[in-house]
Amino acid sequence: MIEWLLGIFLAIGVFFNLLASVGILRFPDVYTRIHASTKCTTFGTIFIVLAAITYSIYNWRLDGNIRWIVLAIHSALVVIFLVLTNPVGAHAIGRAARKSDIRPYGAVIDELEGYYEL
Amino acid sequence: MIEGVFFYSALVVMIGAFLALLRVFFGPSVPDRVVGVDTLNTLVVAGMVLLGAAYDRTIYIDIAIVYALLSYIGTLAIAKYLQGGLR
Q1: Using an 8 Å Cβ cutoff, are A58 and A2 in contact?
Q2: Closest-CA residue in chain A for B3?
Q3: What percent of chain A has pLDDT over 90?
Q4: How far is Cα A21 from Cα A37, in angstroms, rounded to an integer?
Q5: What is the pLDDT of residues B64-83, one digit of tens each?
Q6: Cβ pair A14:B2 closer than 8 A
């Protein structure tokens, strides 16, 4: 049963991480690439860390060693920091790209037209 | 025997990191390359968590925490530079 749970978590996580890489190769401009990469990598890494936590709690139930709990807590810290910092970094890249005068590809309406006077 | 699936997952994540590296090489503009580096950072953090669980080492996951925070600082610094100084 633990093999199935780990397999499902790792399959979801790895699939979404791979989807982010395909997304930044296939999308036409920088904003859609940010859209693909930041959300897919954050979601996929959440599931990868969930698999690591499941694995360490299972091993802690087997032998009762405290270092498995340390591994689980530190993995949870990784995903907390990643969820807090990854969207802010993506926002900063998108804002910097728009300020350095890169137009969105095929935009119907652009409300920031002429907003950033360089 | 369960550890093997972590190694295979780390291998697939590294294939994804190679695809992100292609965007860093062939990106037509500078923000495209920054997006590639940002994706690469998150994929490396995911690979470090997978390898730390595979080798049962907590110290690898500590390095993943530090790498996540430092890559965030680096992305913010490059974005601040691209938008034309500290504004």
Answers
A1: yes
A2: A55
A3: 66
A4: 7
A5: 999 999 999 999 999 999 88
A6: no
Size of interface A-B (CB pairs under 8 A): 167
CB-based contact A56:B55 (threshold 8 Å): no
Q: Which of B19, B65, B76 sits opposite A92 (nearest CB)?
A: B76
A62-68 long-range contacts, CB within 8 A, separation 24+: A67/B58
User: In a 3-state reduction of DSSP, which class is residue A105?
Assistant: coil
CA distance readout (Å), A21 to A87, A101, B17, B37, B70: 17, 25, 7, 11, 21
Testing the interface with A: which of B42, B72, B75 to mutate, by most A Cβ within 10 A?
B42
Numbers of helices and strands, H then E, in chain A = 3, 0
Predicted local distance difference test score (pLDDT) of residue B84: 79
Q: Could you tell me which chain B residue has the CA closest to the CA of A40?
A: B39
Condensed to tens digits (0 to 9), the pLDDT of residues A44-88 reads 999 999 999 999 999 999 888 888 999 999 999 999 999 999 999
pLDDT by residue for chain B (87 residues), tens only, comes to: 677 888 999 999 999 999 999 999 997 889 999 999 999 999 999 999 999 999 888 899 999 999 999 999 999 999 999 887 765
Q: Give the nearest chain B residue to A30 (CA atoms).
A: B32
